[in-house]
Amino acid sequence: MNHSAEETVTGIPNGKLGMWVFLASEVMLFGGFISAYVVLRTGSDFFVIPAREMLGVPLATLNTFVLITSSVTMVLALDAIEKNDQKGLIRYLWISLLLGCCFLGIKSYEYPHKWHEGITLSSGLFGSFYFTLTGLHMLHVLGGLGFIGYLLRNAKLGLYTDLRHERVEYAGLYWHFVDLVWVILFPIFYLL
Amino acid sequence: MTQDSRHHEETFISKYVFSLDHKVIGIQYMITSLLFLLLGFSLVLLMRWQLAYPGTPIPLIGPLLPNFMAPGGVLHPVSYNTFGAMHGTIMIFLGIVPLGVGAFGNYLLPLQIGARDMAFPRMNMMSYWVYFLGGVLMLMSFVLPGGAAQSGWTSYAPLSIISPGQTVWLLAMTFLITSSLLGSINFIVTTVNLRAPGMTWFRLPIFVWAQFITALLLLFAFPVLQAGAILQLLDRIAHTSFYIPKGIIVGGKLIDAAGGGSALLWQHLFWFLAHPEVYVLLLPAMGIVAEIITNNTRKPIFGYKELVGAFASIGVLSFMVWAHHMFISGMKTSLSYLFMTTTMLISIPSILILTCYLLSLRKASIRFNVPMLFALAFLPMFGIGGLTGLPLGFTPTDIYLHDTYYVIGHFHYVVVTGTMIALMGGIYFWFPKMFGRKMNMKWGFIHFWGTIITMNGIFFPMFIQGMAGVQRRLFDPTVQAHNIVVQPTNIFMTFSAITLLLFQVPFILNFFISIFKGDKTEENLWQSTTLEWACPSPPLPHMNFAQNPTVYRGPYEYSVPGREKDYWPQGESE
Question: Tell me, what's the ipTM?
Fold first, then answer.
């Protein structure tokens, strides 16, 4: 039996509260990295910021757009299952999955491009932070894609209905968080 | 789920090894962490022999150690550094936190709020096994090439980036951080969501409050260390230079890295975890002391709401004091003033808690049983630990005392004679609930007096040494002339430590023999009010309570006028 469906004191399902608490710790994880970035960027004399042309801003902007769109389709997936539209749920989960993969595809084109420009993990502080943080973010995207894939499998088995679809909501929460992290990483690495 | 379907067939493995029952997981945590505590203590005994008699072979143990650790039975300097780093790591991350949070929290939190289990039992089991793997990895580092970590439990950069053994330490820490993350999510959701009907926030026992706030500290502080550890790992294996300044020369050679990083950055990230970590060690112990004191004074605790407020403000303030560990690191003076102020502020709730406990004793007819002795000993011992922290929190005095044995004495008074004593009291107090049998109290008295006296014998001379200027982490104290005056104290401390080990033998025997042979006990041995005493001893597997408990009143209704019995359990309707 799914524990999250049990009655709780607050009325919030355990799984949902657990996801929020987990995301709070994730905020601290990325917060730690980003404060390290801020400290060294403002404090170190050797923090060389590459020219904007080397960074490929248009491609990264496209990628931001792709990820935000995938967040929208996750909301649509939740909306579909709340109306008990199982076909709609599967359709929107597929679109989110493909958009997520598209994001990773564009990133895997960007990385070699950066190496070609001489920006690598060990080339200097900018490169170190860029690859560490975007790499960590990519791991989170991969985790999210796994979660969506798991939902898709269950959705095809018809396990979700308008009354029982908590996990779709939890996956959505996580996916929006991953999206939000990118929305912060994008300006600090590409625009500022 | 009907209640009957929980009584499925259980094999030995599913019942005792990969159990989902919070009580079994709690006991697994307890036994594992006690073993780690013994190991961490044994490591320091080897170091203490070197400090008392530098350059002489360690009796009995020395010849048994492998040649690279102790050639001819004499401790090698590198082994000394390794043991020092691993002593701190094992005691804090593998010993006291898993005992205070993993063992007591897991076992008692669901019982005290009247829940059947944690919110996520599967995650709870994973949290134990991830911790176990982290511990095994940490131990394996002793025999892996490069040996165990040797740059202290604080792993200051850039030393930690160039010294061998650190990579395994960082990987093992990742396991431990993951474990504590899984645990803290579970504790928070359980406390918020699974309280029994009638168990309002201000009817929670102080112990539950302490665990809840500890879980929040773990949740918010550990990810920052994880971030710092990932950066350190990359500095070691991927040639990044987050912590490596430009042009740093080690052993006459320029370090091969781009440079530009900051060694202080690591200290900030580390202490942002490690100061809240101090309260992660302390708060569960304070919760235990509250339970034992109210039970044995037969009175409500003094200032319940004030205590909750103090715990909460400690939780908030503990995130704002971290840089008081870094006063002499070259940080800006203006920042030192800020952190000096917040440090003085955090002593207010700590004193408030201690005062509430002391006032709870006033005019009480105290039952001096073994758990109560441990709880009472916590008060002055934690007092010494706390008050000796004040000179370290003021910058003018800290400049003199920093990096001396005074600091070691201070935090050992807080963590060992404070926290550890309270945790031992907790073991004596809840052992009958956990195993349905009593521990032998005569041996308990011997264990208590032996432990408290020898502990003071080890840690009190550290203040004297520190004020005489003896630096910490010295392999051979006699190399500095000013240390020779206080060298006899080292001999006294070493023999105190050996005696302390001997006095743990009755405890260990008492613990394991009582599990199987102790006298059977009734449901509510101590005539206590909180919910864990309303269920059988030991509580029913997977169920805890025979009937769903309902809570009618606050946690400490002792000696209520007009009632026949001097306690009024939370779950009793009349």
Answer: 0.94
